[in-house]
Write a structure and sequence with these properties.
Strand order of the largest sheet of chain A: 2-1-3-4-5-12
Oligomer: homodimer
Strand content of chain A: 15-25%
Order of helices and strands of chain A: HHHHEHHEHEHEEHEEHEHEHEHEHEE
Structural class of chain A: alpha/beta
Largest interface: A-B, 32 and 33 residues
Number of strands of chain A: 13
Chain lengths: 339, 339
DNA sequence: TCATATAACTTAATTGATTAAGAAGATAGT
DNA sequence: ACTATCTTCTTAATCAATTAAGTTATATGA
């Protein structure tokens, strides 16, 4: 048995290669009966369809979009925000009959895959700076989400303004404020930022949010001590709990916790309640992102809702559009019992 | 500026396409001076090398090997055994000038990538059964590691015998034995196996190891109660600690813990010591895999060492060889203070 | 000096598909 | 009955590369 190709299958069935190709790609170009017969025969022969490499070469596009996640793929599975985003992405890609290929932003080598995909949707700034450089030089379409890359379109919310709004909703005169921040410095464990150098200042959404918090505090006549700004390496229970415990043990104890994700906000509330603190009487908490779990938890968490599934869909639409401008998506401040 | 291709670059430089191609692929086919000039010019033009899709089509291979990990990619980062394996794989691939592309066994769709890679090295049985079906039908080379797929070559150690050996090294008459097993049933949290149906009985290394433990116990005149066999969903600290605590609280308390990974073994020892138990006087522990950390920890852990980096190299060599037979790699029982 | 070998390129066939343009036959309208 | 249109399928150019075979020109050996 020779290799299975359009050509060999065509010869086998006594039709032209064009007809086989049309059977797979353009059903209107041949009779229903012949198409059925062809697909049936292909199935029996074990021919699964046109070779993707050849198809990609001829068509000039493969129909595959690479989505690059900031860190490990595990992040996306555990984090409700990221997984919602991916749901939106895959739903919108399906509508356009496109395939999704998921990559980790850690070890991926763009050069190896670049010719096989139609472009990259990059969710969050990858730690791997070499990857950023490759994205910058790529001749494929690149769309970034939750961070910016010079000259490339992006999809974002106005993180600075959203952080400002959420802080303004909770701050009062004479508050002691602590920030539970996400990836503010280059460290693998939770710790106060202090005077350590900030990580990737210009592009990170975390720093935009920090700016927003600070603007709100300024407007309220408050100042933020670097000791009260905590770095959390990843948005998960363990890190968050660790940081929350540490922050709540500081003296003076904060009266407001500004948290850069809802997971962190929830952990912070749990720890505060455990210490016998009352929310919002003794301490107020705000989160970020908007996840369902905060609605079921008591007290409910004041947070910035940002509709990650819609963001995923918007990202795909922006990726597919010819428009190279960046866009800001709407967000919504929702007040809960925590403030 | 038209599209950058071999052809356009060749015309630009006034040489043939063959020469450009040779400049990238066969340096011995042209003079050093011309080659330098060409590479220099390509760099300036922004031509990064031959299109991979066309190259793959013409050559019949892309030089990319897909490695599919059983679960999340996070697993590989945190787990020292898996990351050592990957180091071995990438080292050996580099020797053959091949590229490594990492995929999660969870959401990956083989059809989308099959035509772009030369084959699959599958590390551990993927949870996603649809993926197994795709691997079975694939017309590309497939090599499995730590599990078997009918008709495909595999690389393994003799898990049954190794488990038998490790158990024999520790068992004594009248022991109460508990097994801390990895992925024995289809459940997301640690729990005793009891009478729940085993997960994927034939292919899993966990069940081979369980068989080995049981054969050893039989030979020592012991029987294993299903209540003392614990399922742990993933080899990480939290799950392991949880299961260890539960097992140590059982009555009668086990005098021997057979652990299916060293991470689990270490966690179990930590918990036992915390309870004031003496190792090995009150309780003996054996692990599996062999990781450096067990040598630094006190007491050192009796374990089956299996040289994961060498396994990675062996996997690549088996993948590249024309030989379709499966192979068993050597392992080594190393006695520690824990038995 | 002439045959032979080597080095440095080029020519052109080939890889597996897509698709515009063309051909042959069937159907419909007047 | 004749033309126009539609359906159904084929022909052949093309995508971006690789590579065996062929062509010069230069060097080597006797």
């Amino acid at each position: 048995m020779s290799k299975l190709t359009l050509k060999s299958v065509a010869k086998n069935l006594g039709v032209s290669t064009a007809t086989i190709s049309n059977a797979f790609n353009r059903p209107d170009q041949l009779s229903v009966a012949l198409r059925q017969k062809i697909l049936q025969a292909c199935h029996e022969l074990g021919y699964f369809g046109p070779n993707k490499a050849a198809q990609s070469l001829r068509k000039g596009s493969s129909g595959i979009v690479a989505v690059i996640l900031s860190d490990s793929l595990e992040y996306m599975v555990s984090d409700p925000v990221a997984s919602q985003f991916l749901q939106g992405v895959s739903r919108e890609l399906e509508r356009h009959q496109l395939h999704l290929l998921l990559f980790s932003g850690q070890a991926t080598n763009l050069e190896a895959i670049s010719d096989f995909v139609d472009g990259f949707i990059c969710y969050g700034a990858p730690r791997n700076t070499g990857l950023i450089e490759q994205l910058r030089k790529s001749n494929k379409r690149v769309l970034t989400v939750d961070f910016d890359l010079a000259g490339r379109p992006s999809v974002n919310i106005d993180n600075e303004q959203a952080a400002f709004d959420s802080a303004m909703a909770v701050l009062r005169p004479k508050d002691t404020v602590a920030v539970l921040g996400l990836r503010l410095i280059d460290a693998a464990n939770s710790q106060p930022v202090g005077d350590k150098p900030m990580w990737d200042n210009q592009s990170s959404i975390a720093h935009r949010r920090l700016d927003g918090y600070q603007r709100a505090m300024q407007q309220c006549g408050l100042t933020l001590s670097a000791d009260y700004v905590w770095h959390i390496p990843e948005s998960n229970q363990n890190y968050a709990r660790e940081a929350a415990q540490a922050v709540l043990a500081m003296s003076p104890r904060p009266t407001v916790l500004l948290c850069m994700s809802d997971l962190i906000g929830l952990s912070a509330m749990r720890e505060a309640l455990q210490l016998g603190l009352r929310i919002p009487e003794d301490i107020r908490v705000v989160g970020f992102d908007g996840i369902e779990e905060t609605l079921r938890y008591h007290p409910t968490l004041t947070s910035v809702w940002q509709f990650s599934d819609a963001k995923g869909e918007a990202a795909v639409r922006a990726f597919l559009s010819a428009d190279d401008s960046s866009q800001l998506l709407p967000y919504q401040l929702r007040l809960g019992e925590s403030s």
